[in-house]
Specification:
single chain, alpha/beta, Arc Repressor Mutant, subunit A, Nucleotidyltransferase, domain 5, 3 domains, five-stranded mixed beta sheet, 43% helix, kinase activity, kinase, WH-like_DNA-bd_sf, WH_DNA-bd_sf
Length: 381
């Protein structure tokens, strides 16, 4: 926006929202120091946010000389969202608050009729379960984020590789669902969301680039380049399950059913109880390494994270066995590690996406304020 008093006021107010989210409750003086603005301007920012219903008093700060300082916090309970992870018939959903309080995850196994139900009904039920578990009013939900076992093309708002979800539209997906549910709906591939979670708080934090192999009912691949997940021209980057290897599709080699067959063959009830030298892990590592070869040949990542239910169950032994197979059988050398985000990783990725979206929503609400401008506006240096 042009550098007018009104535009500078909006930028200052938006900065205040971000600072309050980052630091939690703040006094006027604390906000002034953090923003680099004067105390009168910080006080005016707080007044405007409170008048808009975005701010409330949260007690007093003691311990300094002089009178106690009133601290203020954002009213994030008016800007909550719901994260949903759909994996086969399993639906997990949880309320997300940008300020960080954790809510319980609602777990539901769909019936055959629910699998066939329209997507908006599936999501509405997931939202209702999450809100009930959290004790939150559904009217406070301003967005829904969904992790799917599908390729999501954001440019055309379409889905592909989604044969197992007959009730979902293929075109104008987010637009249609948003219209039916009354709030924006954010869609993303599950492997990409697991990569978002690992980049934020897990194994990918320090990596310049990494690949994440999602080993679940099928197989998916996410490629993170410097903190940006590469989705491709049509959202189908990483859909390697249909590639042929050793006379079979890669998805069939490392699917959940194939892994369970290997466990029975080697009499392994729990992969975590056997080490990397066990015949089970050696056999599975050969299949996982074969699945990784396309990513290694094209992207040459420095790090590979083995994720999904199989990667989590296999842990460090499977990662070590896979690294050894690659070193012994191929020309590619990559560090192979187990995941660090092992509790609802797809939901955690959705949480990160929703928090960024809701922060933008709150800052946009600041930009629509029509209260009078303060007499003196300072631009943040």
């Amino acid at each position: 926006m042009p550098g007018t008093p009104g535009s500078l006021r909006v930028l200052n107010d938006q900065a205040a929202v971000a600072l309050l989210l980052e630091h939690g409750p703040m006094s006027r003086n604390e906000l002034a120091r953090a923003s680099g603005l004067s105390k009168p301007t910080a006080a005016e920012m707080l007044r405007r946010l409170e008048a808009a219903g975005l701010l409330r008093e949260a007690g007093e700060r003691t311990g300094n000389r002089g009178p106690n300082a009133t601290v203020h916090e954002l009213t994030t309970d008016r800007f909550r969202s719901v994260a949903v992870d759909i994996e086969g018939r399993t639906v997990r959903s949880v309320v997300v608050d940008v300020a960080g309080p954790a809510f319980p995850v609602a777990l539901h196994i769909m019936t055959e009729a629910e699998v066939l139900a329209p997507a908006d009904e599936m999501l509405q039920a997931a939202v209702a379960r999450a809100c009930s578990a959290a004790g939150v009013d559904e009217d406070a939900i301003v967005a829904i984020g969904v992790g799917l076992q599908a390729a999501v093309d954001h440019a055309s708002d379409s889905l592909t590789f989604i044969e197992d979800m007959p009730g979902w539209p293929r075109h104008a997906v987010a637009a249609t669902l948003g219209e039916r549910l009354g709030v924006p709906v954010l869609l993303e591939n599950d492997a990409n969301l697991a990569a978002v979670a690992e980049r934020a708080t897990g194994a990918g934090r320090e990596a310049g680039s990494f690949a994440l192999l999602q080993l679940a009912d099928g197989v998916g691949l996410a490629l993170d380049f410097g903190g940006v997940v590469h989705t491709g021209a049509s959202g189908a980057a990483g859909e390697i399950g249909y590639l042929q290897a050793d006379g079979a599709e890669i998805g069939d080699l490392v699917s959940r059913g194939a892994v369970e067959d290997l466990q029975r063959e080697h009499d392994v009830a729990d992969p975590a109880t056997v080490d990397a030298d066990h015949p089970f892990h050696r056999a599975l590592a050969a299949r996982v390494g074969t699945a990784l070869l396309p990513a290694l040949a094209v992207a040459d990542p420095a790090l590979v994270v083995l994720h999904g239910p199989t990667g989590i169950a296999g842990g460090a032994p499977l990662a070590a066995a896979t690294a050894r197979w690659l070193r012994d059988r191929t020309r590619w050398v990559a560090a192979v590690v187990p995941p660090q985000v092992v509790v609802a990783p797809v939901l955690e990725g959705v949480r990160h996406r929703l928090r960024a979206h809701v922060l933008s929503t709150m800052q946009a609400a600041v930009g629509r304020l029509d209260t009078p401008a303060p007499s003196r506006i300072e631009a943040q240096q």
